Amino acid sequence: MTGRGNELGGFLRASRARIEPGDAGLAGGVSGRRVRGLRREEVAVLAGVSADYYARLEQGRERNPSAQVIDAIGRALRLPADAREHLYRLAGLNPRSGPDSRRDLVHPSLLRLLETFPGAAAYALGPAFDVLAANPIANALLSPFGDERNMPRVLFTHPEAKTVFTDWELLRRSTVYALRLNAGRFPDNTGITGLVAELSEVSPEFRALWDQNNVGSLTRAFKVFVHPEVGRIELTYQTFEVVDAPGQLLLVGTPEPGSRSEQALTYLASMAEPG
């Protein structure tokens, strides 16, 4: 076992020992516990990974965690910024690949375009379908998923996905096919390979779809959301590729003019306004 593995495991054990179950939103308190803090299985649940995967990571038997997994574990352990950066380094990852720097990765033209769609849900996706940046309406639309901004992970691990997306199964299938297409286009992209390894580990449904070896693009699509604040929202999405930033996409979802969905987006925009 390498020194890096020992250090990572030691840091994870110490970090979970400092978190009480109640502080992490878990019921049951501390009665019947032999040691302080969270159990391995509880960290795994909070991070959205399998208990076996997390155990191997803590024991140093898993050598190559993805940035997405380390991000999820850091949030599960409620690590502050400095501790998250340290966690990334112990895992052999560049901290700048973490979620706090996603906006820095977006091509400037995409950031400018996001501001030109005040009445639509617009967001920029990276090759692994991380939401790199979003306008206020898109952020409000995705708010049921909390801090999670990787769409494949949302679709296959988040408990709210099946409720929010009415075409959940179709969306999961098309997303996996598009992810496989990107895996072929960008074979050296560690974000994609790490995400595929992670979801193959924790989701039999993802693994089955991935093994079908089908590919497809994220093109024009009709999507229906059921948002907890405003209810049903119907949007037609257009997808635009960025020539100067291979793998980055701009997705823009627009409602039918004069529809209830347009009114719902207007309300979401008002909720997103400061003050």
From TrEMBL:
Record SUPFAM superfamilies: lambda repressor-like DNA-binding domains (SSF47413)
Gene3D superfamilies reported for this sequence: 3.30.450.180, lambda repressor-like DNA-binding domains
CDD domains named among the record's database cross-references: HTH_XRE (cd00093)
InterPro entries: Cro/C1-type_HTH, Lambda_DNA-bd_dom_sf, MLTR_LBD
Residue ranges constituting the HTH cro/C1-type domain according to the UniProt record: 33-84
Name of the protein this chain belongs to: Helix-turn-helix transcriptional regulator
PANTHER family reported in the protein's UniProt record: BLL4672 PROTEIN, BLL4672 PROTEIN-RELATED
Signal peptide feature range: none
One Pfam family matching this protein: MLTR_LBD
Tree of life domain: Bacteria
